[in-house]
Amino acid sequence: MSYIDENKEAWEDAFRQRKSGWGNDVPTNLKNKSDYYVEPCIKKVLDEMDLSNKKIAQFCCNNGRELLSISKHYGIEGTGFDIAENLIQQGVENASILNLPCNFVVTDILKIDGKYEGVYDVILFTVGAITWFEELNDLFRMVSKCLKKDGIMILHDYHPIMNMLPLPYEAEYHAENLTFLENKYFSDEPWIENSGMAYISGEYNSKTFTSFSHSISKIINAIVTSGMEIKLFEEFNYDVGLSDVYNNKGLPLSILLLASLNRKDLI
């Protein structure tokens, strides 16, 4: 079984083990505040774009809450792609409750159907998405295939430096020494985890999750060779989901990257 198939099983099992009510509050949250799940740096980018009559896709959309939030706030049609069938089903149900023009597709991102080629004006990756792919060239080549000419990819994620830093629940973490680096920056070894997906399920003896570290240069080079041109790259001194203990300490902890498709000949 491939690591992608194993991850599919692990994600679907984590959703089955989910905390009571997880994801059920999405419709209420979005009815109260349409941009509830849109990170400020992403919102700033989207606010500056003309999204009228545009289509957006989110790759690795999970239960689609960010996509639904963007669709409701900006009145834009959206498609969410994810490998986990039950997560996608929750997205479908929440889209129906909210009466939003969003559809969801269960698929391996690297095998998205050809009918989606050249369809989207914007493709979005949110935090923790690209780590699930060993080969970024294949991933960003799929982005290029699905984008329209001059379409934009938005990538918001952890900075690779975060992979080097021990987190508070790890034995190597020392509150008095926040400059201690536990792991290598350059590593081809996958992360193997069998303790569930904490934010969904809490910890339990789970099926295997396999993810990968990617350096900034590896990310950028894969984007460029896929036929996209980088328009913006920002680094922030705050984390976006793992821990706030390193925030505002002068370390790069998260990134925002925009790239535009304008070289179809390189795909």
Topology:
Layout: H1 3-16, H2 26-32, H3 40-47, E1 55-59, H4 65-74, E2 77-82, H5 85-98, E3 102-106, E4 120-125, H6 136-146, E5 147-158, E6 191-193, H7 198-201, E7 209-211, H8 216-225, E8 228-236, E9 254-261
Parallel strand pairs: 1-2, 1-4, 2-3, 4-5
Antiparallel strand pairs: 5-9, 6-7, 8-9
Task: Give a structural overview.
The chain has 267 residues and is of the alpha/beta class. It has a single domain, classed as Rossmann fold (3-Layer(aba) Sandwich), CATH 3.40.50. It is built from 8 helices and 9 strands. The protein has helices at residues 3-16, 26-32, 40-47, 65-74, 85-98, 136-146, 198-201, 216-225; strands spanning 55-59, 77-82, 102-106, 120-125, 147-158, 191-193, 209-211, 228-236, 254-261. Helix 2 runs parallel beside helix 5 and helix 6 crosses helix 8 (216-225). Pfam families: Methyltransf_25.
Number of helices: 8
**What string, H for helix and E for strand, traces the elements in order?**
HHHEHEHEEHEEHEHEE
CATH topology: Rossmann fold
- The coarse overall form would be globular
CATH architecture: 3-Layer(aba) Sandwich
Question: What is the mean pLDDT?
Answer: 95
Report the sheet-strand fraction: 15-25%
Low-confidence stretches: none
CATH superfamily: Vaccinia Virus protein VP39
Number of strands: 9
